[in-house]
Design brief:
Elements lengths: L1 H20 L3 H15 L1 H22 L3 H19 L2 H32 L21
InterPro entries: Bact_com_dev_regulator, Biofilm_formation_YmcA, Com_YlbF, YheA/YmcA-like_dom_sf
Organism: Novibacillus thermophilus
Protein name: Master regulator for biofilm formation
Length: 139
């Protein structure tokens, strides 16, 4: 019964941490930019056109239409470039990178701190810390 209580307390803290994390600037920015991208008619139109063109390309390959396939590949390249060059899409992509970096940092610190406390074997030799030499300072 006590083990269940410990797990419950840990999960409460995890949810509290997640709630606090949702208020971090990078998370707020990501959510805002994601919403703008999802609500942009132009972005959504380009995404739909890219999907349609990809499907047509599969059919062109299947039915061995090399000229049409080349045309579709070029069209797909142009559509992707147009989408990638939109300022809001660039901002969204940058925001994704920042979110990924934040989550990676959290994961590394947690792994390092947990392995310090539990002396977890990470494969091969038993070491202290996560081994990344990152923000938690372990080697």
């Amino acid at each position: 019964m006590e083990q269940a209580l410990v797990k419950e307390r840990i999960m409460e803290r995890v949810y509290a941490f997640a709630e606090k994390l949702s208020h971090v600037d990078e998370v707020q920015r990501f959510r805002h930019v994601e919403k703008v991208v999802n609500e942009s008619p132009r972005v959504q139109q380009l995404i739909e056109e890219i999907k349609r063109t990809q499907k047509e390309l599969v059919h062109a390959e299947h039915y061995a239409k090399p000229d049409y396939k080349r045309y579709l590949e070029q069209r797909l390249k142009e559509l992707n470039e147009t989408l990638s060059n939109m300022p809001i899409v660039r901002e969204y992509q940058q925001s994704q990178v920042e979110m990924n970096d934040l989550l990676q940092l959290i994961q590394n610190v947690m792994a390092c701190e947990i392995s310090k406390k539990l002396n977890v074997e990470t494969g091969g030799e038993v070491r202290m810390g996560c081994g990344s030499g990152g923000p938690c300072g372990c080697k």
